[in-house]
TrEMBL record, chain B:
<feature type="transmembrane region" description="Helical">
    <location>
        <begin position="171"/>
        <end position="191"/>
    </location>
</feature>
<dbReference type="InterPro" id="IPR005667">
    <property type="entry name" value="Sulph_transpt2"/>
</dbReference>
<comment type="subunit">
    <text>The complex is composed of two ATP-binding proteins (CysA), two transmembrane proteins (CysT and CysW) and a solute-binding protein (CysP).</text>
</comment>
<keyword id="KW-0813">Transport</keyword>
<feature type="domain" description="ABC transmembrane type-1">
    <location>
        <begin position="42"/>
        <end position="245"/>
    </location>
</feature>
<comment type="function">
    <text>Part of the ABC transporter complex CysAWTP (TC 3.A.1.6.1) involved in sulfate/thiosulfate import. Probably responsible for the translocation of the substrate across the membrane.</text>
</comment>
<dbReference type="InterPro" id="IPR035906">
    <property type="entry name" value="MetI-like_sf"/>
</dbReference>
<keyword id="KW-0764">Sulfate transport</keyword>
<dbReference type="InterPro" id="IPR000515">
    <property type="entry name" value="MetI-like"/>
</dbReference>
UniProtKB/TrEMBL annotation, chain C:
<keyword id="KW-1003">Cell membrane</keyword>
<feature type="domain" description="Mop">
    <location>
        <begin position="281"/>
        <end position="345"/>
    </location>
</feature>
<dbReference type="InterPro" id="IPR003593">
    <property type="entry name" value="AAA+_ATPase"/>
</dbReference>
<dbReference type="InterPro" id="IPR050093">
    <property type="entry name" value="ABC_SmlMolc_Importer"/>
</dbReference>
<dbReference type="Pfam" id="PF00005">
    <property type="entry name" value="ABC_tran"/>
</dbReference>
<dbReference type="GO" id="GO:0016887">
    <property type="term" value="F:ATP hydrolysis activity"/>
</dbReference>
<dbReference type="InterPro" id="IPR027417">
    <property type="entry name" value="P-loop_NTPase"/>
</dbReference>
<dbReference type="InterPro" id="IPR005116">
    <property type="entry name" value="Transp-assoc_OB_typ1"/>
</dbReference>
<dbReference type="GO" id="GO:0005524">
    <property type="term" value="F:ATP binding"/>
</dbReference>
Amino acid sequence: MFRRLSRRAIAVPVALVLAGLSGCGSGEPATSSTSAAAGAKEVNVFAAASLTETFTELGKTFEAARPGVTVKFNFGSSATLAQQIVQGAPADVFAAASPATMKTVTDASLASGPTTFARNKLEIAVPKDNPAKVAELKDLTDPRVKVALCAEQVPCGAAAVKALDAAGLKVTPVTLEQDVKATLTKVELGEVDAALVYTTDVIAAAGKVQGIAFPEADKAINDYPIATLSKAPAGDLAKQFVDLVLSQQGKDVLTKAGFEAP
Amino acid sequence: MLVLPAVAGLAFLVLPLAGLLIRAPWSTLPQRLAEPQVLEALRLSLVCATAATVVCVLCGVPLAWLLARVEFPGRRVVRALVTVPLVLPPVVGGVALLLVLGRRGLVGQWLESAFGITLPFTTLGVIVAEAFVAMPFLVISVEGALRAADRRFEEAAATLGASRWTVFRRVTLPLIMPGVVAGAVLCWARALGEFGATITFAGNFPGTTRTMPLAVYLALETDPDAAIVLSLVLLAVSVVVLASLRDRWVNSP
Amino acid sequence: MTADGLRATLVVHRPAFTLDITLDVAPGEVVALLGPNGAGKTTALRALAGLIPMSGGHISLDGRPLHHLAPEQRPIGMVFQDYLLFPHLSALDNVAFGPRCQGVSKAEARRVAAALLERVGLADRATDKPRRLSGGQAQRVALARALAVRPRLMLLDEPLAALDAHTRLEIRSQLRRHLADFDGATVLVTHDPLDAMVLADRLVVIESGVVVQQGAPAEVARRPRTGYVARLVGLNLYRGIGDGTRVEVGELPLHTSEQLDGPAFVAFSPAAVALYRTRPDGSPRNLWQATIGGIERHGDNVRVHLDGPITAFADITPAALADLELSPGQRIWASVKATETHAYPA
């Protein structure tokens, strides 16, 4: 019993190391690509995690207008998604949270001519009761205020650095979170007094946090590019989905969620 | 009949490792390894995993003793509870820790007001998260050793006038030492690789809470080669430590 | 009886059986608990040590009640069947373990232990770990370890069972010497009659959880009162009704040299049984016709199992076996002289 258990147990850290690396090679998305050629009834959309709510809604609209067609989403970190596409994941559409991550895909000649369909701005998120009485970006430099930022490696972190640089402020965060949702969670739980997240995330948190807009945010606006992939198995359906996102209807959905029109 | 699936299983476990080794950027390896952030993360990982193991041994061995030696109502439930961190997704474990030990947590609130201690975003928090996830490995290993140990030695010690504590310290503990060592090694290895609970509960900041697995994850976002290098370091350290303890591990009861 | 020594009534209920025995052992006396497997000997010993809870009864040692104390608080020394020397400690530290637990300083405990090892002749093995000791040496270390706590009650569980025949002989006589030097009460559990006879001043025979016979070894050997004891001491034993010098055992009257009336036992040695192919002349007093149930070697002799009005063993020489040309199922005449029998009240 003990030996069996210990062998299995030892595999766990190893497996974890491997799992941590899965994004670079073996990370097949959960979607299956059954569509072979034209007449495909399935569109695989790889989209940044911050698009989860809006794209899910647009997907339903898309399906409602085309009986028999299903839209399958793979939401995740833009960088991870880009890696998956480069490694051969069967995507039709890629919607990224930053031009840099889109560049990974266009550099690999897997897509061309991405269009910016939305822009996202940073806001200061504070817990509902705002215990540190944060009112503007400068308040974040107070060492008594615990601040969470996204890690620089992910788009919201890069934007935060840009905004703070523009304002000439130096903030020492207590943590650099791996994505914007994790950053927001720390605010929701009251573990930090403030964080820089996207306006859309504050709106999606539906009253669990309070958002404070700040002027320097305009210096760090995040562009969201979208593109059909050149090898898109769904072919024309992919194009139609991108058109929907770029349409007035798509804009309405995105604006409602806090995105700005490009 | 057994060889084929065995080979398949082995290949399944080994091939990803081979993939890492093949994809590794060997030419730039030395200068990547010498980067201060890498050494910092490695040092933090080793310190935290070791400290977490010490915590697990100090609390886990008595807990294993309780489970193996003392009859009390609800013992089976307690044993099941001990294994919860094994099945709980570590991220959920991290959230649970925040809810209890966080700044607004049930215990954390009191810790802060009474002692001014906050655990999230501190190295101490990393140790707590790692200990939480790794403790079951130690408890299960030690409990197994305790159940396998011949209890009559403890009886013999009692007839010689040894109190319960003396029996435990001078007879039981030496007898189960191989099991304790094996459990501590597993525990240490698990703590070293801990990611989910750590990043959720302790956050991620270079020098205080960014351990190797966190560095690997973030490196993946922008620089997969760096992630491979970091993983190789982690892998090499675990292989060296586990191999040096292998005999005791395999021969333990 | 004085309050000194051990006075115990042990009651332990087990799913299969109930142990209920009374045991008195004077200081310096060695009592052997003898009985078949599962009779409750070891249960009794463990109850005395406090290792299993008693369902009832009491234990007092030198006038002090003991039964409510935990094992570590009882002034006992125990030698276990396979010694249970602590494998991670040297012989010396094994022996010093008890004194250390009693709060003696490390140096003093080791001095006491060294003296005891010297006494059991193992001064030169003090630093050895138990796995490097032979069975006999381990047994002696176990004895020294038990003596080191200066117990008032010594408990030995099959102390010689794990030894080979040769070592056993040597260790038995040594153990006898050490037990003779010990001034407390000693209870020894064994299923070997020879160990019991050599080591004990008194035998207490237990069967199915109750005492069936007790007394000095010679007395028990001469006058067994149960089939188990009779087999143990190698006698044929019958229970009957005495009428003068005759004891009626079922259909068969056995003539004895003793006068006895009422319920009685008759015992005789298998060697006292003579066998004949035809009815012997001169008609001995105890003569019966038997069927041979089996023949087996028994030491240098041959043991013949006899069925008939009484079942009996007869020991004859291999030469006699050849002369008589015996085989199982054969009808044969058996006789025992009245002077070779021993009768005593049941």
